[in-house]
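Entry 14. Structure prediction run on the chain below.
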Amino acid sequence: SYSSARVVTVSERKINQDRGHIIYPFANHSQTALFGVFDGHGEQGEKLAEYTMNAVCEKLHSIYVSNNSSVLSKKKVVKNDLEEAFVQIFQEIDNEVEKEEDL
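Output returned:
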Protein backbone atom coordinates (compact mmCIF):
# COMPACT_ATOMS: atom_id res chain seq x y z
CA SER A 1 0.00 0.00 0.00
CA TYR A 2 1.26 3.46 -0.78
CA SER A 3 0.04 6.99 -0.63
CA SER A 4 0.91 10.15 -2.45
CA ALA A 5 0.25 13.81 -1.94
CA ARG A 6 -0.36 16.38 -4.57
CA VAL A 7 -0.55 20.12 -4.58
CA VAL A 8 -2.93 21.80 -6.94
CA THR A 9 -3.12 25.56 -6.87
CA VAL A 10 -5.41 27.64 -8.99
CA SER A 11 -4.58 31.24 -9.64
CA GLU A 12 -6.62 33.66 -11.64
CA ARG A 13 -4.48 32.81 -14.65
CA LYS A 14 -3.80 29.07 -14.67
CA ILE A 15 -3.74 25.73 -12.84
CA ASN A 16 -0.50 24.41 -11.42
CA GLN A 17 0.15 21.49 -13.76
CA ASP A 18 2.96 19.94 -11.74
CA ARG A 19 2.54 16.80 -9.67
CA GLY A 20 4.78 15.04 -7.22
CA HIS A 21 4.92 12.38 -4.58
CA ILE A 22 7.06 10.90 -1.85
CA ILE A 23 6.31 7.28 -1.07
CA TYR A 24 7.94 5.66 1.94
CA PRO A 25 8.33 2.82 2.41
CA PHE A 26 8.18 1.89 -1.23
CA ALA A 27 7.31 -1.66 -2.29
CA ASN A 28 7.09 -2.74 1.36
CA HIS A 29 10.82 -2.26 1.81
CA SER A 30 11.83 -0.11 4.78
CA GLN A 31 15.05 1.09 3.12
CA THR A 32 13.41 2.20 -0.11
CA ALA A 33 11.55 5.40 -0.98
CA LEU A 34 10.21 6.77 -4.24
CA PHE A 35 10.39 10.48 -4.97
CA GLY A 36 8.76 11.79 -8.12
CA VAL A 37 8.25 15.17 -9.76
CA PHE A 38 6.17 15.40 -12.92
CA ASP A 39 6.15 18.68 -14.80
CA GLY A 40 2.96 19.16 -16.81
CA HIS A 41 2.79 21.42 -19.86
CA GLY A 42 0.16 22.39 -22.38
CA GLU A 43 -3.59 22.35 -22.47
CA GLN A 44 -3.95 19.03 -20.60
CA GLY A 45 -0.65 19.18 -18.73
CA GLU A 46 -2.10 18.56 -15.29
CA LYS A 47 -3.92 15.43 -16.51
CA LEU A 48 -0.80 14.07 -18.16
CA ALA A 49 1.36 14.78 -15.10
CA GLU A 50 -1.21 13.07 -12.84
CA TYR A 51 -1.52 10.06 -15.16
CA THR A 52 2.25 9.69 -15.44
CA MET A 53 2.79 10.04 -11.69
CA ASN A 54 0.30 7.27 -10.93
CA ALA A 55 1.44 5.02 -13.77
CA VAL A 56 5.15 5.27 -12.87
CA CYS A 57 4.38 4.39 -9.26
CA GLU A 58 2.16 1.44 -10.12
CA LYS A 59 4.49 0.02 -12.77
CA LEU A 60 7.65 0.42 -10.69
CA HIS A 61 5.90 -1.07 -7.66
CA SER A 62 4.90 -4.07 -9.76
CA ILE A 63 8.48 -4.57 -10.96
CA TYR A 64 9.91 -4.20 -7.45
CA VAL A 65 7.46 -6.63 -5.90
CA SER A 66 8.02 -9.26 -8.59
CA ASN A 67 11.83 -8.96 -8.32
CA ASN A 68 12.10 -8.02 -4.65
CA SER A 69 14.75 -10.49 -3.52
CA SER A 70 17.23 -9.88 -6.35
CA VAL A 71 16.67 -6.19 -7.08
CA LEU A 72 17.06 -4.96 -3.54
CA SER A 73 19.93 -7.18 -2.45
CA LYS A 74 22.79 -6.03 -4.71
CA LYS A 75 23.64 -2.36 -5.31
CA LYS A 76 25.01 -2.94 -8.83
CA VAL A 77 21.94 -4.89 -9.83
CA VAL A 78 19.69 -2.18 -8.41
CA LYS A 79 21.30 0.56 -10.51
CA ASN A 80 21.15 -1.43 -13.75
CA ASP A 81 17.67 -2.80 -13.08
CA LEU A 82 16.28 0.61 -12.17
CA GLU A 83 17.68 2.25 -15.28
CA GLU A 84 16.19 -0.50 -17.42
CA ALA A 85 12.91 -0.40 -15.51
CA PHE A 86 12.48 3.35 -15.95
CA VAL A 87 13.19 3.15 -19.69
CA GLN A 88 10.62 0.35 -20.02
CA ILE A 89 8.07 2.17 -17.85
CA PHE A 90 8.28 5.46 -19.76
CA GLN A 91 8.06 3.67 -23.10
CA GLU A 92 4.91 1.92 -21.89
CA ILE A 93 3.44 5.20 -20.65
CA ASP A 94 4.25 6.91 -23.97
CA ASN A 95 2.36 4.15 -25.79
CA GLU A 96 -0.59 4.37 -23.39
CA VAL A 97 -0.79 8.16 -23.66
CA GLU A 98 -0.86 8.00 -27.46
CA LYS A 99 -4.02 5.88 -27.20
CA GLU A 100 -5.75 8.08 -24.59
CA GLU A 101 -8.10 10.65 -26.09
CA ASP A 102 -8.31 12.73 -22.88
CA LEU A 103 -4.58 13.31 -22.53
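Helices lie at 45-66, 68-71, 75-99.
Filed with the rest of this week's runs.
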